[in-house]
Amino acid sequence: MLQRLALLSLLGTSAVAAFDYDIVGAGSVVLTDVDTGISDLRTIFTDDEIAVSLDGLEWESNGGNTTDGLLFYKTYLDGELMSEGNMTLGDVGRELPSGLDAGTVKATAGGRHTIEVIVTSGEAEAVTDREVESYAAGVSILPLLVILVLSVTTNMVELSLFSGIFVGACIVAGEINQGFKDTVEDFILNALADVGHGYVFLFTFFLSGLVAMLERSGGMLGFTRYISQYATDARRGQVAAFVVGVVIFFDDYANTLLAGQSMRPLVDSLFVSREKLAFFVDATAAPIASISPVSSWVGYEVGLIQDEIDAISERFGGDITIDGSGMALFLASIKYRYYPIFMLLLIIGLIATQRDFGTMLIAERKTEVYKRTDGGDGGTSGAAGSMGDENAPRQDQPLKTYNFALPIIVLVFLIFYTLVQTGDDGSGEQDFMDKIESSDSYQALLWSTIGTALVTLIFYLVQFTKDGSLIVPSGSDIKDAFFGSSEESDEPKARSILSVRDSLESFIIGMGRVFPACIILTLAWASGSLMKAVGCDRLFAAWIVGGVDPSDLPTLSFLISLFMALATGTSWGTMGILFPLIMVPTYIASNGDEEIFTATVAGVLSGSVAGDHMSPISDTTVLSSLATECGLMEHVGTQAPYVLVVVIISILFGTLPIGKGAWPNFVGVILGILVLVAFIFGICKPVLSPTGAWDPITLLFQKIAKTEGLEKLQKDTIRAASGEDLSKEVEAKKVDVEETPEQSQPIMEKPSAEEAAA
Hints:
Elements: H1 2-9, E1 13-14, E2 21-25, E3 28-33, E4 43-45, E5 50-55, E6 58-61, E7 70-77, E8 80-88, E9 96-97, E10 99-105, E11 111-121, E12 124-135, H2 142-154, H3 157-173, H4 176-193, H5 195-216, H6 219-228, H7 234-247, H8 252-269, H9 274-283, H10 286-291, H11 298-315, H12 326-333, H13 338-353, E13 355-356, H14 358-368, H15 402-423, H16 432-437, H17 441-461, E14 464-466, E15 469-471, H18 475-483, E16 495-496, H19 500-534, H20 536-547, H21 553-568, H22 571-589, H23 594-613, H24 619-628, H25 632-660, H26 665-682, E17 685-686, H27 696-705, H28 708-721, H29 729-732, H30 753-757
């Protein structure tokens, strides 16, 4: 290791004659952990061997007096000599070195230490030093523990992340005052100042603003009404909710708000529980956005991947075995994202068979057996308030589906067009995927969303409406719309679907929706940098490189990210923290195995989504609950069992065998699908079962708890399955002996044929 470091330190040289120059500057001290090879250390662990090198040696002509051609160094730790040696300048081809390996040091006690290096050449001498904190390796995980503990106990992610950064900064600085200053100036401000991070911020803001414009125009509502005309029973209503969730693939917040708010009245009228709707909304938000190449997630995910590729490339001099493009690796990782893939397939199976298990089966039977149109026991109508009313379309707004579809088509086209353009090297020998893999995704996503927002603004501006219908405007209509009318009249006037003011107002509302997420994003980036500074990456690297079988890394990365996201409630924050800790050690431990590295990337990304999916403090979990007007804990309690099932299948048939090389990836996916089918038909039970049978888990609970409510519900299920109308019974008493809600949601009025066609 030391010989390799010495060789690397001599790569940068000044092309001058060696022996008639004196050393006048020793440059800066660079520290590298010998065991893991991680360099640019800001802190060191006690009893760890640390390689010391100098970067930026300065030389000056000595007026023609030649030296003996030897460069000597002595390295001290707190005044005690730790290493000494020399280098023959003749060995470097009569070129002056700009770097020097200066031996190793080892701190045996914690605290503040001074590392001093004295370099001499002939009679010339140069000195440089550096102060550094030393502590036991286990201390480095303290900031991470602070984040996890506070996330669980306070349910405040922002406070938890900031507190973790502050604690870590104090450890690095060795004092509280400097630690607080470094928290803001060193970690948070540097996270904000990064150009790549700026691209992600702008792209996220522009896409969120665009989504709000689509919502304000009435295009989104028009699309959902078009879908709803085909929903005539519970199965078709669930299909409609799922389709809306899949189509809104580009943003998890937009997906949650649109599908939750617009489909709630429809599925209520079809006797579907709020818990089931909240599950569909939540399960088609992050799982789809995280694997879509065109979404508000892709910029962040690709950026994290690219940062680690760059770190690996820099460490190994550009000679790496994985693809150098973050976008290419992102696309390659999709087939290893077992959790979102299996979750989406599970939902399709549940809808097709109308089967459920556990708490979801109970919630569905309580709603469908008694034909409740209030969403069932999990409904909170009137308690949670209405989401997104500030950006709702006007009452007389024509709800045209194409006002949603065309901007999305433009966005997808521009993204792929700019990806191809930024990835074209001009050789004419690249195919489409070569250009995509070589593209600059930051630029493509940003300019595409900006362009689509401008095109959409103009598109809405030139469409005129009057009395709720689109019209071909006259010259006076255009004049009045843009410049105002001098004549007062009580008659409705023609106007643009969205004026410039309307578009800007909705755009700002859209940006405001993701502002809290951007705060978490900034703190997550800062946390990632802090984890490196405090040495948590070295601790993970020592575990992974020294004691973990590389074939277990896809599974370990999945589980670690799952539990962290579950505790913190943020998938983005989990990704931002874990990528710098896991990916470089994974590359080293696997000897650059491309499949293991890609599967580990997928493990972090999909594990973060899985943990976020069942965390009660996750923003998307809370937002799904609010948008569907379903109780938060009712939503979490009915969704979590399905998450656990998919997690187990993802590990047993995905991450474990792909790491061990047991079978090709497609075999694991096929086996996972077969197990899902077996689960649906073997464990899950029909909602309206002629026998009223419970699934094994619920049956076990019923036998242990001897719950009268479940026994009665089972009997009523048999009656309802035989065609008996039990809707009147719910007016007197709920199944769980609670009082009946005083109000029920009205059945959604189906759109007319003309509205549906629009």
